[in-house]
Design brief:
The complex is a heterodimer of chains A (261) and B (218).
Chain A (H helix, E strand, L loop, with lengths): L5 H8 L6 H10 L1 H17 L11 H9 L16 H27 L4 H31 L11 E2 L1 H23 L3 H18 L4 E2 L1 H14 L1 H18 L8 H7 L3
Antiparallel strand pairs in A: 1-2
Helix pairs in contact in A: 2-3, 5-6, 5-7, 6-7, 6-10, 7-8, 8-9, 8-10
Chain B lengths: L1 H6 L1 H12 L3 H23 L2 H18 L9 H27 L9 H11 L8 H15 L2 H12 L4 H8 L3 H23 L13 H4 L4
Classes of the chains: A mainly alpha (261), B mainly alpha (218).
Chain lengths: 261, 218
C-alpha cells in the first residue's frame, strides 16, 4: 500500500478505517508513517491532560433542587398511573392527615381552653400513622437486606415484592415528609427525605437484579445508615406518641408535663 | 460512560414510566443519576464551568418537557446526552454569533487553522513558561478554535466513546459528514498542538483513560 493519508491515519486511530489491515501492515513496514502516527497519538493523548473540574458526590441532588421548581406541571402525582391498591394506601394516609387537621380545628373552636389536649390528639393520630409507616419501611429494608439469590442456575435476585412495597411506601412517605415539613419537624422530615431516596432507588430498580446490584443497594443503604436512622426515628415517634396520649381535659397541669414537642 | 448508561437502562426505563405517569420525584432519580456525567460532557464542550452547569440544567428541563415524545425509554442516558450536546451547540452558536457581531472579521471553518496559529503565536514564548502549562493553554485555545460541530463531534468520539451514528444523530448530520467533522477536528488539533508537543515528551500518565471506547489499539 502507498503511504496512508492523514485522514486514513486518523480513521485508523479512531477505529473508522475500512482498510484497517492494510494500514496496520504498512505501519509495521514504514518508519515515516509510524512516526507520523506516533505524533497523532501524542496529540490525542495530550488532550487527556485537559482537566475537568470534579463535581461533588451529591451534585445530582443539587441540580435537582435547582430544576425541580422550574419543571412544568405534569398530571398530578396521584394521576392515572397509580393502581387502586396504592390509591387505597395513599388515601388512608391522607385521610389520617386530614382527620388530624380537622379534629384540631373543630376542637379548637369548641374547646378553646383545652387546646393543649386537642393538639396532642391531633399529633398522636399523625404519630401513630408515621410510626406505623416507619415500622413497615424498616421491615421491608430488613427483608431486602436479607434477600438471597434464587436457584443457583438463575443467579438473580427477585426483589419484585420489596419493589412493590417500596412503591406503596413511597407515596405515603411523600405525604408524611410534606406534613412533617409543614409542622416544622425538620429532623423527622430529614429522615423521611433520606428514606424516600432509598425507596425511590428500590422502586426504580429492575425486578430481577444480580447479587452485585443487590450488594450495591445494600452498600448505599449502609453508607447512609438508613436502617439505623429509620429505627431511631421510629422509636422517637413512638416515644412522642406515648407522650401525646390525651389525658382528661380537666387535668391540664399533667399534660403540660407530658408533652414533649 | 457508555457502559454505565447501559447498566442503568432498566431502572431508567422504570423511572421514565413513573415520570410519565405523573410522579415528578421519579425524574429526580434520573437527574441524580446522570448529572455528573452530563457535567463532564458539557464542560468539555464549553470549557467553562458556569456554562456547563447551565447546560446540565437546560438539558434536564428540555428532556422533561419532551419526555412524552421519547420512545426508546430504556436509553434515557443516551437521549439526555444528545439533548445536552444540542444545548451546548446552541449556546456556542449564539455566543459565536454575538462575537461575530462585535468583531467584524468572521472566523468560519476555513479560517479556523489560521485562527489557531494566531492564538498560538499570541501566547507567551514557551521558554518563559512551563511547557505543561503552555500545553494546557494551547489545548484550550485549540478546542476553542474548532467549530461548534467539530468540537461536539470530537468530544463525543474521543472522550465519550460515542459511535459515529450516535454523533450523527445528535448533530443532525449524515454519517460520512460526521466522520469528516471528526477528522477535521483531529487535524486542526494536530496542527495546533504538534509543534509544542515536539518539545515535550509525553509521559505515560497522559495517555487516554478509555482506549477501549475508541475501538482502536495503538
Amino acid at each position: 500500500m502507498t503511504h496512508p493519508s492523514e485522514e486514513q491515519l486518523v480513521g485508523y486511530k479512531l477505529g473508522e478505517a475500512h482498510d484497517r489491515g492494510a494500514i496496520e501492515e504498512h505501519l509495521g513496514d514504514c518508519s515515516e508513517c509510524r512516526a507520523s502516527f506516533a505524533r497523532l497519538e501524542r496529540v490525542l493523548a495530550a488532550m487527556d491532560s485537559m482537566p475537568v473540574p470534579e463535581r461533588e458526590e451529591d451534585y445530582g441532588r443539587r441540580i435537582w433542587q435547582q430544576i425541580a421548581p422550574r419543571l412544568p406541571q405534569r398530571s398530578p402525582w396521584w394521576g392515572f398511573g397509580m393502581d387502586l391498591q396504592r390509591w387505597g394506601a395513599v388515601a388512608a394516609a391522607a385521610a389520617l392527615v386530614i382527620a388530624a387537621f380537622f379534629l384540631g380545628r373543630q376542637h379548637a373552636v369548641r374547646l378553646p381552653t383545652n387546646d393543649q389536649s386537642v393538639q396532642q390528639v391531633r399529633e398522636r393520630i399523625l404519630l401513630v400513622a408515621v410510626g406505623d409507616h416507619l415500622d413497615r419501611s424498616e421491615m421491608m429494608l430488613v427483608e431486602l437486606t436479607n434477600a438471597e439469590p434464587g436457584p443457583a442456575d438463575k443467579k438473580l435476585v427477585n426483589i419484585s415484592t420489596e419493589q412493590k412495597r417500596a412503591e406503596d411506601l413511597l407515596d405515603e412517605n411523600r405525604l408524611y415528609r410534606q406534613t412533617a415539613l409543614q409542622q416544622g419537624d425538620s429532623a423527622l422530615a430529614s429522615v423521611l427525605d433520606e428514606l424516600e431516596r432509598v425507596l425511590l432507588d428500590i422502586a426504580h430498580s429492575p425486578e430481577e437484579i444480580t447479587p452485585g446490584q443487590l450488594e450495591k443497594i445494600r452498600q448505599r443503604m449502609e453508607a447512609h445508615g438508613i436502617l439505623f436512622k429509620v429505627r431511631v426515628a421510629g422509636s422517637e415517634v413512638r416515644r412522642r406518641e406515648r407522650s401525646a396520649t390525651p389525658v382528661p381535659a380537666q387535668d391540664n397541669s399533667t399534660t403540660q408535663k407530658g408533652k414533649h414537642t | 460512560m457508555i457502559r454505565m448508561i447501559e447498566s442503568t437502562q432498566g431502572s431508567d426505563a422504570a423511572a421514565v414510566e413513573r415520570t410519565l405517569a405523573g410522579d415528578p420525584d421519579a425524574y429526580r432519580v434520573l437527574v441524580e443519576r446522570h448529572s455528573r456525567n452530563l457535567f463532564r460532557l458539557a464542560y468539555r464542550m464549553t470549557g467553562n464551568e458556569q456554562d456547563a452547569e447551565e447546560i446540565v440544567q437546560d438539558a434536564f428541563l428540555r428532556a422533561y418537557r419532551k419526555l412524552g415524545q421519547f420512545e426508546s425509554r430504556a436509553n434515557f442516558g443516551t437521549w439526555v446526552y444528545r439533548i445536552a450536546v444540542n444545548c451546548a451547540l446552541d449556546r456556542r452558536r449564539k455566543r459565536s454569533a454575538e462575537e461575530r457581531h462585535r468583531a467584524s472579521p468572521a472566523e468560519d471553518d476555513a479560517d479556523a487553522p489560521r485562527a489557531i496559529e494566531q492564538r498560538a503565536s499570541a501566547s507567551p514564548a514557551p521558554d518563559r513558561l512551563a511547557l505543561s502549562a503552555e500545553l494546557g493553554k494551547q489545548i484550550v485555545s485549540a478546542l476553542e478554535a474548532l467549530s461548534p460541530a467539530e468540537r461536539a463531534a470530537f468530544v463525543m468520539r474521543h472522550w465519550e466513546g460515542c459511535a459515529i451514528e450516535e454523533i450523527a444523530q445528535a448533530l443532525h448530520l449524515r454519517n460520512n459528514a460526521t466522520k469528516n467533522t471528526v477528522f477535521r477536528a483531529v487535524q486542526k488539533l494536530r496542527r495546533a498542538l504538534e509543534p509544542l508537543l515536539a518539545k515535550e515528551p509525553v509521559t505515560p500518565g497522559t495517555r487516554r483513560a478509555m482506549p477501549a471506547a475508541q475501538g482502536t489499539e495503538s
